[in-house]
């Protein structure tokens, strides 16, 4: 079987371009810390609100004694709960999210934070928000008629403001 020299060149160029694309994807995933989820946790979506870490009184921002911040969010038609979240800049954050009903996507524009929230599973994302300001947390997976209105407010403040906020909340809790 004879293959023309021009056909060999085009095949080589095509395979080279495909190989270059694969290298770019793998390189960007490696250098930007993008990886497939590996720690799979299951949860009963029907009883989220009754007990455990996703009970209504345990949602939102929680800081442990070591200063680790965990944000617990429940996605349900058509909102993220709690609605308003305040977080500090330049601090490692762990977002733990679950769905009450259908598949939701979650994304904070202008950051690297985004994932899918599948019913029955806990989605966990670790990130750091470097810029103070207001960010929307939006659903980027069509989840029904109210999908366009499914968003949340995230306010990122400086570490000094965060310390003052924690101090004032601590004083309020001790009164």
General description of the model:
With about 180 residues, this protein is α+β, with helices and mostly antiparallel strands. The protein has one domain (about 40-175): Cupredoxins -  blue copper proteins (Immunoglobulin-like, Sandwich), CATH 2.60.40.420. About 25% of the residues lie in helices and about 35% in strands. It contains two helices and eleven strands, in the order αβββββββββββα. The strands form three sheets. Strands 1, 2, 3, 4, 6 and 9 form a six-stranded mixed β-sheet that branches. A three-stranded mixed β-sheet has the order 5-11-10. It starts with a helix and ends with a helix.
Keywords:
single chain; 175 residues; alpha+beta; 6-stranded mixed beta sheet; 11 strands
Work out the helicity level.
10-25%
* Mean pLDDT value: 88
**CATH class assignment:** Mainly Beta
Domain count: 1
- Termini separation (Å)? 89 Å
Largest β-sheet summary: 6 strands, mixed
**SS class:** alpha+beta
Number of helices: 2
Number of strands: 11
Oligomerization state:
single chain
CATH topology: Immunoglobulin-like
Question: pLDDT below 50 for ≥5 consecutive residues: which ranges?
Answer: none
Order of helices and strands: HEEEEEEEEEEEH
Shape: elongated
What is the level-2 CATH architecture name?
Answer: Sandwich
């Amino acid at each position: 079987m004879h293959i023309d020299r021009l056909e060999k060149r085009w095949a080589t160029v095509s395979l080279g371009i495909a190989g270059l694309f694969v290298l770019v994807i793998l390189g960007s995933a490696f250098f930007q810390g993008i990886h497939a989820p590996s720690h799979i946790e299951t949860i009963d979506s029907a009883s989220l609100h009754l007990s455990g870490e996703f009970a209504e009184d345990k949602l939102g921002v929680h800081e442990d004694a070591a200063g680790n911040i965990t944000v617990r969010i429940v996605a349900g038609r058509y909102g993220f709960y709690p609605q308003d979240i305040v977080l500090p800049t330049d601090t490692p954050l762990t977002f733990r999210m679950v769905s009450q009903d259908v598949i939701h996507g979650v994304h904070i524009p202008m950051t690297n934070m985004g994932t899918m929230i599948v019913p029955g599973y806990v989605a966990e994302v670790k990130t750091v928000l470097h810029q103070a300001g207001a960010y929307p947390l939006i659903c980027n997976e069509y989840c029904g008629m109210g999908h366009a209105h499914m968003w949340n407010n995230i306010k990122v403040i400086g570490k000094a403001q965060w310390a003052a906020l924690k101090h004032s909340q601590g004083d309020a809790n001790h009164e």
